[in-house]
Structure formats: C-alpha cells, structure tokens
Design a protein that fits this description.
With 308 residues, the protein is α/β, with parallel strands linked by helices. 49% of the residues lie in helices and 10% in strands. The protein has helices spanning 3-26, 49-54, 75-89, 108-114, 133-136, 148-161, 171-179, 188-196, 209-214, 216-227, 233-242, 245-250, 254-258, 277-291, 295-300, 302-305; strands at residues 34-37, 40-43, 65-69, 95-96, 119-123, 140-145, 204-208. A 5-stranded parallel β-sheet has the order 4-5-3-6-7. A two-stranded antiparallel ribbon has the order 1-2. It binds adenosine-3'-5'-diphosphate. The site of adenosine-3'-5'-diphosphate has 22 residues, from helix 3, helix 6 and helix 12.
C-alpha cells in the first residue's frame, strides 16, 4: 500500500469513528453525554470505565512521547508539530494516535503495545490518572499550558460545536460549570496544581500556548532539545509554515472539521469577547488561590494575558 493510501485509510477510519460516535451521541441527553469515573466527568461516548481500567496494560517506552493537555490548550497544534518533526524532517513515521489515550475500547492497548516506535500519545487526563508506566519508563512528557480565560472561551465554543459533548444554552451556564470544576475533565485549576507538584520529576517539558504563538522558533528549539533533535534554520521555517493556524485550518481533515471547532480562532485574548467583569474577577481569585507563586502560574504569565 502506498503512503497516501495508508494515510487515507487512517483518515477514513478516523472519520468513521467520528461519525459513529456522533450518531451515538445524538440519541443521548446532555446528562447522558457525561460519565463519572472516580469523581471526574468524561465524555460518555468516548470514555468508559473498562478503558480506564485497562489503561495500565499499556507498555510505555522511554522513546514514547506523551502530549499532556487540559482540553483546548493546543493539543492538535502540538500533535502537528511533533508530526512534522518526527516525520516531516527526520523521516520517521510516528505512530500517531489520532484520538486521546483515554478514548476507545479497552482492547486497544493490546494493539498499541505492538505498534512500533516512535509513538506519540496525547491525553487530557490529570497527572494522577495518567498510567504510571509513562513515569516509570521515563517517557517524554510535553505539558502544554494556556491561560485559563482563553481556555474557558475555547472550551465553551467547542462544547457547543462538538456533537459528543454536552452543549450549553449560554456562556454564563458554561462558566458556572467551568469555575466549579463541573465541566468534562474537571477543574483546570486542580489540573494545574497537580502537575505543579511534579514538573521537576524529570522528562517533562512545559510550554505555554501564548509563548508558542509569540516566539515559535524559540519554543520549537526547546522541543527539539528535549527530544535530542537537531534542526537547521530552514527546517525550523518549514515546521513553522506547516503548523501555523491558517495552514492547519486550511488542511484540516473532514474528520477534524466534523469533530467541531478544533481550529476556531487560534488567538490570545479572545476571552474579552465573553467574560463579564465579575466572571473575570472570579477567575482572578481562583488563580490567586491556586497558582499564585507557583512555577506553572508564572509560566502562564497571568498578569499579561488575563488582565484588561
Ligand atoms: P480557539 O478555540 O481559541 O481558537 P485543542 O487542540 O487542545 O482542542 O485546542 C484548540 C485550540 O487551539 C483552539 O483555540 C484552536 O483554534 C487552537 N489552535 C489549533 N491549532 C492552532 C495553531 N496551529 N496555532 C494556534 N492555535 C491553534
């Protein structure tokens, strides 16, 4: 099978998966679209208790890459960057899991265990819920942060555009769930606080969405250093061109488009379009309580990106 046929087949498989889950979801109420596992809500048509339980059978490797993100912090962007680095430049075909580690059926890990290196995984799971194997094997973990206000706005639009997620009648209703941690995947503040305790454990590179937008080459260099890859200026330019918001949006697969507004605006500061002053202050207070004085809090550069 040729390269393009192989890719087409993967895309077709992904499209089928998206269509199947959307059809399933259309028969469920907003409440039924959520499932609870150990106190956190997840999308019920994508996640199951059985899959969470079998996740421990995944045999992690030291050359695995795990992209860790809270929803809407730049997962697809980072996947594309890794794809360009590993495949586009170094001509290694990475085993890219199009879906999240936690999505799909429990048997999938048997297949994943057979897949060749280099493998790239992504997950929205909190630190505590990521399979321990990744840490024991010292797999490389790339944690991407985004300021909590833009994350909320992006999450709101995504929830209302993705058929498998519970939609919200208004921004205010979404905000209420976001600030109290009742959205899928729970509180972003808890998520960050948990990672904060472990970012010095080794093999974890933390980058911020806003800084990646501001100075892409510098951040790409950090990723390359982390993975021990060496790129020429020309190659950096090429990766940059293929991972801009516009390029990715224009080349998005039908499946990604069907999965909702994955490529919506890709901007910093869009929170001002929806936040009331009171909501803004609520997030400020949460940030102060959870993240003031922490390393991750500093990396988010809250004063710069979250104030009027
Ligand atoms: P917006 O909704 O604010 O536009 P994820 O991939 O984790 O679901 O994150 C989606 C967010 O990342 C969306 O934010 C999307 O537009 C933005 N995004 C995706 N690709 C991007 C890129 N190449 N550059 C900048 N932002 C990007």
């Amino acid at each position: 099978m040729s390269d393009s046929e192989e890719k087409k087949t993967k895309q077709e498989q992904f499209l089928e998966f998206i269509q199947k889950t959307a059809e399933q979801a259309s028969k469920l109420t907003p409440e039924e679209l959520k499932c609870n596992y150990k106190g956190t809500l997840y999308p019920s048509v994508l996640c199951s208790e059985a899959t969470f339980q079998s996740m421990g059978t995944l045999e992690a490797r030291d050359d695995d890459v795990l992209i860790a993100t809270y929803p809407k912090c730049g997962t697809n962007w980072t996947i594309q960057i890794l794809h360009e680095l590993l495949f586009g430049i170094h001509n290694k075909e990475p085993t890219l899991s199009q879906a999240m580690l936690e999505f799909g059926n429990p048997e999938k890990f048997q297949h994943v265990n057979q897949q060749p290196s280099p493998r790239v995984f992504c997950s929205h799971l909190s630190y505590e819920n990521i399979p321990r194997n990744f840490f024991e094997k010292k797999s490389k973990i790339l944690l991407i942060l985004r300021n909590p206000k833009d994350t909320a706005v992006s999450y709101f639009h995504f929830s209302n555009n993705n058929p498998v997620l519970p939609s919200y009648a208004s921004w205010d209703l979404f905000f209420e769930d976001y600030i109290t941690g009742k959205v899928l995947y729970g509180s972003y503040f808890d998520y960050l606080l948990e990672w904060e305790k472990h970012i010095d454990d080794g093999n974890i590179l933390v980058l911020a969405f806003e800084e990646m937008k501001k100075d892409f080459p510098a951040n790409l260099k950090k990723i390359c250093d982390f993975y021990g890859l060496s790129l020429t200026d020309e190659q950096i330019k090429m990766v940059h061109e293929k991972t801009t918001f516009t390029f990715m949006k224009d080349n998005a697969t039908i499946a990604k488009e069907k999965a909702g507004s994955v490529f919506r605006k890709g901007e910093v500061g869009d929170w001002k379009s929806l936040f009331t002053e009171e909501q803004s202050k609520e997030v400020d207070a949460k940030f102060e309580e959870y993240l003031a004085g922490t390393k991750l809090g500093e990396m988010i550069n809250y004063a710069k990106y979250c104030t009027y």
